[in-house]
Design brief:
heterodimer; A: 240 residues; alpha/beta; 4-stranded antiparallel sheet; 9 helices; 10 strands; 38% helix; 25% strand; B: 244 residues; mainly alpha; elongated; Peptide ABC transporter ATP-binding protein (chain A); MetN_ABC_transporter-like (chain A)
Chain lengths: 240, 244
């Protein structure tokens, strides 16, 4: 479903991604782990072209993402993204945060969009927060709204960029629970995370990145229990 | 020895010219409002242009802003009234057109910087979130960035309005019969300077005072509708806590 070939990314002189090849199939859950600065967030952001790709190609459903002829907005409709800092729209209610894109981009009428939003809020356990504003919510609640907002576009893939890293510890679980529910529903997911428990439990494959290179790729058992690379071992010994 | 010899103040001479002053107020208000409204629209376009990555959009906007902020308004008024408009149209279109045009172009340049800074002050993640939801840049700008940026722009844009109101007095050099011009006429007629210019000053003060009040009201309105918790926290605090 997502095919990445020879992906390079530089910020000026700094090479962040140094040739990544990877393929993600439908309904797969990929957890990307690695030390900070390893390029894992950049990797994720290249998939929906939030970062320009320096070299290489990304295909989503057979469409080349970084092609000048591709309407990136069409691609992004199908690729939901959840950010570390939530990035909810502070001037809109929770309901409007969720419905704005279906209404303006999918041209859904308000009634339908509101019904969809309420259904999604119910799913993430925030049915009573529809009329609240983001700043009235806790971090965990904001992130759950952000997930509902991304789901409202009915994407085929969800990208998670360290979704729990900005949360207080007691709020991590409520967000992970929502993500687990998505896994059970068969959503294709790419999750950049520091939550090793989640990666081990929910990942179909775990990908270890360091210094812009894909070091290790395999089932959670492979990567966590029998890492081949010394770098993986060194990293795991620090975080587990 | 300095002798301050206040002549007996005679405000009755002002009263005789009250129609001139009233007309002056209207001209000043008209020039200011037209200049400001078109200046905001122009500023919005220029401000966004200065944020463009396309060089052929960015540079014209940048040079425009640099020119109008880097030259005196008085010079711009004279250039437009005596050179630009007669060259383009073959004749003068009157002080009002020249004055309104000069004030609009000038105000647009200042507003462009305010609007650019306002847009840039919104966290990068907001645009990214909008784009990641499939919004084209323009849609994200319209629904996500500008509503938030506008709230931050209100105070400096308000200052700009006050500044423009006062700067509009410069059109007096092209014989626009604005408020200052009324004072000059009276001063010329009686060869007296205290009464007419004090009157002019007080009338400007009155106008800026009214404008300040309006701006304060707008600021309050916007901060209420955009920081809604100030109104709502009392009602939802309990639920918030329970939900977290």
């Amino acid at each position: 479903m997502i095919k990445i070939q020879g992906l390079y990314k530089s910020f000026g002189d700094l090479q962040v991604l140094k040739g990544i090849d990877y393929e993600i199939n439908e309904k797969e859950v990929i957890c990307v782990i690695g030390p900070s600065g390893s390029g894992k967030s950049t990797f994720l952001r290249c998939i929906n072209l939030l970062e320009d790709i320096t070299d290489g190609v990304v295909f989503i459903d057979g469409v080349k993402v970084n092609d000048p002829g591709t309407d990136i907005n069409e691609i992004r409709k199908e690729v939901g993204m959840v950010f570390q800092q939530f990035n909810l729209f502070p001037h809109m209610t929770v309901l409007d945060n969720i419905t704005i894109s279906p209404r303006k981009i999918r041209k859904m009428d308000s009634k339908e969009a509101n019904a969809l939003a309420r259904q999604l809020l119910d799913k993430v356990g925030l049915a009573d927060k529809a009329d609240a504003y983001p700043e009235q919510l806790s971090g965990g609640q904001m992130q759950r709204v952000a997930i509902a907002r991304a789901l409202a576009m009915q994407p085929k893939v969800m990208l998670f960029d360290e979704p729990t890293s900005a949360l207080d510890p007691e709020m991590v679980k409520e967000v992970l629970d929502v993500m687990k529910q998505l896994v059970y529903e068969g959503m294709t997911m790419v999750v950049v995370t520091h939550e090793m428990g989640f990666a081990r439990e929910m990942g179909d494959r775990v990908l270890f990145m360091d210094e812009g290179i894909l070091i290790e790729d395999g089932t959670p058992e492979d990567v966590f229990d029998m890492p081949k690379s010394d770098r993986t071992k060194a990293f795991l010994s620090k975080v587990l | 020895m300095i002798t301050i010899d206040f002549p007996d103040i005679r405000f009755d001479m002002i009263w005789n010219y009250k129609e001139l002053f009233i007309r002056g107020i209207w001209v000043t208000l008209g020039l200011t409002l037209i200049g400001y409204v078109s200046g905001v629209i122009l500023g919005l376009l220029l401000g966004m242009g200065k944020l463009s990555k396309k060089k052929w959009i960015y540079y014209p906007c940048k040079y425009y802003v640099d020119f109008f902020r880097g030259t005196p308004l008085l010079v711009q008024i004279l250039l437009i009234h005596l050179a630009l408009i007669p060259t383009v149209f073959g004749e003068s279109l009157g002080y009002f057109v020249s004055g309104a045009l000069a004030l609009s172009l000038n105000c647009g340049a200042y507003n462009a910087e305010i609007i650019r800074a306002g847009i840039q002050s919104i966290e990068k993640g907001q645009m990214e979130a909008g784009r990641s939801l499939g919004m084209p840049r323009g849609v994200a700008m319209r629904y996500v960035i500008l509503p938030q940026a506008f709230r931050r722009m209100v105070p400096p844009l308000g200052n700009e309005l006050i500044a423009l109101l006062k700067d509009s007095s410069l059109v007096t050099v092209i014989a626009a019969n604005d408020l200052l011009y009324a004072g000059k006429v009276v001063a010329g007629a009686y060869a007296r300077f205290w009464e007419p210019y004090i009157t002019v000053a007080i009338l400007y003060l009155l106008l800026t005072y009214i404008f300040t009040k309006v701006i304060t009201y707008v600021e309050k309105r916007f901060s209420n509708s955009y920081v809604p918790s100030q109104r709502r926290r009392i009602f939802s605090f309990g639920r918030s806590a329970a939900g977290g």
